[in-house]
Design goal:
It is a single chain. By secondary structure, the chain is of the alpha+beta class. The protein has one domain. The protein contains two helices and three strands. It is elongated and about 45 Å long. The chain binds zinc ion (ZN) (2 copies).
Length: about 100
Amino acid sequence: MLEMKPNCEYCDIDLKASSKHAMICSYECTFCAYCVEDVLRNVCPNCGGGFTQRPARPGKARRSGVSLEHQPASTNRVHTGYSLEEITAFAESVRDIAPSER
Ligand SMILES: [Zn+2]
Ligand SMILES: [Zn+2]
């Protein structure tokens, strides 16, 4: 099950489970859409993969036992350990390779 992390790993903005601005890589590294575009250049600093929009988890149980209330979002805030300089250098070296070819 997808871990709905509560914040952007870089700028620390809150990302609710319903946010349209939450982006994830295949390892569920989670960043806001602004950082993915302007800082990360669609290169995850942790794994080098690309990003896609995180699906919103339904707030209402439209099927029995399945909703944000039953499987709540994580409250564990995560912060990348990489500096802006490291992120930028890494992004520059990888961004021109399509995510499916990395
Ligand atoms: Zn951000
Ligand atoms: Zn990643």
